[in-house]
Amino acid sequence: MKIEDATSVEVNDYRVIVFPASRPFTALEAKKITEYLYDFLPTWAAHGKPLSASFKIEKNQFVVVCVDEDKELASGCSIDALSGIMRNLDGEFQLGFFDRMKASFIENGEVKTLKLQDFRAKIKSRELSDDIEVFDFSKDSYLNFLNEFLLPLKESWAKIYLD
């Protein structure tokens, strides 16, 4: 299994796990993340059974891992093992992968990330335009990821902050 560009037609609906960073990766960070995951994913297993998985770095700020659960289901222990690798990277580079109190969005073609309370305040005060697009890290299938990972503010989870 390999994650391709979003322009390809995908018929399998893999499980997706997104690790959103609080800022863009440096070249060194992207290289290290790639090396860690290239080393880890071929050995990743659930209860001793190998998992078919791949990853990509999206927008130079989000690590997207896909698992083909038609072949083998990812277990809690296997997800913990992946999270351990990502926690190591997070600790080494202070990437904020596990800070869930943030929002990432695109404004004027640029990916930006704010603390959730600041994001909400800027929407309410109209400092952020209604034309921004908002990332949704809760997508857990590849088809949902392709279709709903980035949505206009008015169609996103953040629409609750609009008056």
What does this structure look like?
- The protein is an alpha+beta fold.
- It has 2 domains: 79 residues; 53 residues, no CATH class.
- It has 4 helices and 9 strands.
- The protein is globular and about 50 Å long.
- 25% of the residues are buried.
- The N terminus is likely disordered.
In short:
The protein is of the alpha+beta class and 163 residues long. The chain is built from four helices and nine strands, in the order βαββββαββαβαβ.
Task: Considering the chains and any ligands shown, give keywords for the structure.
single chain, 163 residues, alpha+beta, 2 domains, 4-stranded antiparallel sheet, 3-stranded antiparallel sheet, 4 helices, globular, ABC transporter ATPase
How would you summarize the topology of this molecule?
Blueprint: E1 15-20, H1 27-40, E2 45-46, E3 49-50, E4 53-58, E5 62-67, H2 76-93, E6 102-107, E7 110-115, H3 116-124, E8 133-135, H4 142-148, E9 150-152
Antiparallel strand pairs: 1-5, 2-3, 4-5, 6-7, 6-8, 8-9
Helix pairs in contact: 1-2
Organism: Halpernia humi
Protein name: ABC transporter ATPase
